[in-house]
Amino acid sequence: MKKTLYYLLAVAMLVSCRQGEIRYDMSQQVESLLDSMTVEEKIGQMMNSTPGIERLGIKPYDWWNEGLHGVGRNGRATVFPQPVGLAATFDTELLHDIGDAIAEEARAKFNVAQRLGNYGRNAGLTFWSPNVNIFRDPRWGRGMETYGEDPYLTGVLGTSFVKGMQGDDPRYLKVAACAKHFAAHSGPEATRHGADVNPPMKDLFETYLPAFEMLVKDARVEAVMTAYNAVYGDCCSASPFLLQDILRNRWQFKGHIVSDCDAVTDIYSGHHCTRCEMGAAVMALKAGLNLECGRTLRTLTDAYALHLIDEDDLDNALRPTLLTRFKLGIMHDDPQCPYNDIPASRIGCPEHQALAKRAAVESMVLLKNDGILPLDKNMHLLNLSGSGATDIFYQMGNYYGLSDNYSTYLQGIVGKVSDGTSVTFRPGFLLADAPRNDINWAVGDAAEADVAVIFMGNNGSTEGEEGESIANPARGDRLDLRLPESQMNYLRAVKQSKGDGIVVVLTGGGPIDLREICELADAVVMTWYSGQAGGEALGDLLFGDANFSGRLPVTFPEKAEDLPPFEDYSMHERTYKYMTGNILFPFGYGLSYGRVEYGDATAVVNEDRTVTVSVELANRGEFDIDETVQFYHSSPAAGNGAPVSQLVAFSRERVLAGETRRVTVRVPVERFETVLDDGSKRLLEGVHTLHVCSAAPTYRSEALGTYDIEIPLGL
To answer: Is 260 an active-site residue?
Structure first.
């Protein structure tokens, strides 16, 4: 009873504080609360769905909330493009603004939910986003959730997103973000609950961990979620190497560690590391897990009775999660929290709708254009086909929210053409199945039109997470990157009947086999999953009211059959960094209406261990262009154990029509270091090459223009 009164007194001291008075320290509040809780109450707070403790004034709370590209699974919200599409923008400011918008809508929805007494899943403020796993293999169905295949791009964009979500208040979090899934998780979906991945130590520290490190050190992310798989024989949710040696000790992570959903159960049921639930719970607790998504930690009650754990173990696990709730201002009614009064009018507000459209415009990638684009608004007859033109599901991706303001691709295009233009639409083909009727009027409609725009690709039924893609026999992964024959046969039929005048618009979350599509179509556009404003954005782009600026965040290979084994986590022949062939469209690639020419480039090594790089850009065309200038490093050991090239900096630059100007960036020398076999880093002596270009160095970037600078370093 005394402990309870002591805690309530501490709370009262905080509530009675006014601006300028001394606040009761949050860490002291945590200790007071721990002193007031029973063992059973403590264990009850260690799983995602936590009960209220009425005698301590604690309301129920569920930690499980999603926000990859908008508040997810919680009713009305602004729906932004899927993260792989956001990565295609190469726009750090945009990612920050989207993170802030998501947090604002989350707070507004939380404030309403609390008044309604809705304490359930998806109504909270702890968001299990972003996903900063590396899209190491284009067959992975969940690659759509990531920021692509490059660790640096992933880390930079993820950091901006987290900073936007968590806000800049020195004391309170706007929402709590979470870096997932730690670590080395990127398919296959079918074996994720029992897989033991063993990447070379070099690859672990060069590819799989850097983005997590950036989010911990630079963004101060509040949470880290463990992966389902094991690494080097230890389940990620019970790995002292990952959770203690790296996360807590090397990186000094101060937030909380949460398991993926039922990943603690996998310790015994999938990985068979223990014989029972209780053994899995104890193993995870001892390794440093703070919170479980699931119910296995309920067995800690028996473990405590058997003296397998003590109360200090429980307190050590609970401290970070209790502190998170205090920092959110939700452990009790905290009048000092600056986010208490965000109104519901901010949900789907005009500013957020405009941001969603801007993101969609910046995300779409023009892969081919033989001159057919931009389209003429005054053409006589335009034909659209493919279910993706009208079905909003082709724009939603996964972990999506629901908007009351969707724009389909058909709406966006029809809203652009002249009122004197005839527009026709038919689905034309089934997503995956062959038509059962041998008569298809859609082919004739397309052949008669001035231009036929065909919507092809994937949706959430054919790719994604293991339990969502119900039309996929591989549990969400796309083991064959080719589109179904139903789609390809329709495109072939239109080509045969029509000849020229075909625009293919692709939907999906990852690379597609485009060899034949690029042969048959005059233009190819990758829209990803573009969110609620995708239709408006595509309409602007196709008709030249906006210019394409998206760049691929993942390599599009020529053939899936030439990729390394899906289960192999070595980076050999994976991503642009190590691929020596099989590249159709490289990382960083994307066309615009017009072209920026790269002129003289220079590099100067500064005394503060930075390199100042400068390049001249010239736009001699008629369209303003948002150019993503990319800087890639090749070390003296490139191709001999080190990456062929590796992104070390990038800058989105607006170059006006007819303008010539110089762009300068400053790159820390540490980004030129090479990761050695043991995972350590060293700046190699010799000549380092900096490639200044508009895509990862390949034959395609050479065609677009590239400038190589040799820099002596390591002396």
So the answer is: yes
